[in-house]
């Protein structure tokens, strides 16, 4: 296993450690609304394959070796830097969002619109962290399948999920959310 594969697996463990306490507390919360479609369940399952299953097959066997490629060392170090950025944004988003976080389209009974911390700059830092992740993954796991499949699955997930999430937030928070949208960028800070 290369140092960059180790970076990938350590990053995955760090994400799990960041999310675990909130996930446990979140399950005790009452939800007032859930919009989890079969399409979303399927895409989330495909993301699990792209983020964990294929990388595990790549790292633990030779089955995907036919799709390996080699990059210069700077590619792996760039991937490491992007992954560290992904983890920082992921941690900051969870710290600022608290129990308002959900892995799917859900609204808590006591849901709040969070506009402080990283949310003062971008509306979807979790997706920003996942963008960094899916760009870093093929730099760390230098395999056309284990490295790129997650990116190919994440693109339609992102396009579908953000649209549905913003619609739900507008329905819940109305003009407050529209005003918030005007002040912030989706996954990159708004300029000007």
Please characterize this protein's 3D structure.
With 192 residues, this protein is mostly helical. It has a single domain (38-183), classed as Up-down Bundle (Four Helix Bundle (Hemerythrin (Met), subunit A)), CATH 1.20.120. The protein is 66% helix and 4% strand. Strands 1-2 form a two-stranded antiparallel sheet. The chain is globular, with a radius of gyration of 18 Å.
Keywords:
192 residues, two-stranded antiparallel ribbon, 66% helix, Four Helix Bundle (Hemerythrin (Met), subunit A), 2 strands
Short description:
The chain has 192 residues and is mainly α.
Overall geometric form: globular
Q: Kindly state the mean pLDDT as a whole number?
A: 92
First-residue to last-residue Cα separation:
45 Å
Annotation field: number of helices? 6
Give the count of structural domains: 1
CATH architecture: Up-down Bundle
Order of the strands making up the biggest sheet: 1-2
> DSSP strand (E) fraction?
under 5%
For the sheet with most strands, the description reads: 2 strands, antiparallel
CATH class: Mainly Alpha
**Percentage of residues assigned to helices:** 55-70%
The Rg value, from CA coordinates, equals: 18 Å
């Amino acid at each position: 296993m290369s140092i960059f594969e180790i970076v990938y697996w350590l990053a995955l463990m760090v994400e799990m450690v960041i999310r675990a306490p909130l996930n446990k507390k979140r399950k005790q919360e009452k939800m007032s609304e859930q919009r989890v479609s079969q399409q979303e369940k399927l895409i989330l399952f495909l993301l699990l394959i792209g983020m964990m299953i294929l990388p595990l097959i790549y790292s633990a066997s030779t089955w995907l070796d036919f799709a390996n490629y080699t990059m210069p060392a700077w590619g792996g170090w760039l991937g490491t830097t992007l992954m560290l950025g992904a983890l920082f944004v992921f941690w900051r988003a969870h710290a600022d969002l608290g129990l308002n976080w959900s892995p799917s389209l859900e609204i808590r009974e006591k849901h709040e619109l969070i506009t402080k911390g990283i949310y003062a700059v971008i509306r979807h830092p979790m997706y920003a962290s996942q963008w960094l992740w899916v760009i870093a993954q093929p730099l760390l796991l230098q395999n056309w399948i284990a490295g790129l499949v997650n990116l190919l699955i994440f693109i339609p997930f992102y396009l579908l999920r953000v649209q549905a999430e913003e619609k739900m937030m507008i329905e819940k928070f109305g003009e407050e959310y529209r005003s918030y949208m005007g002040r912030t960028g989706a996954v990159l800070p708004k300029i000007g």
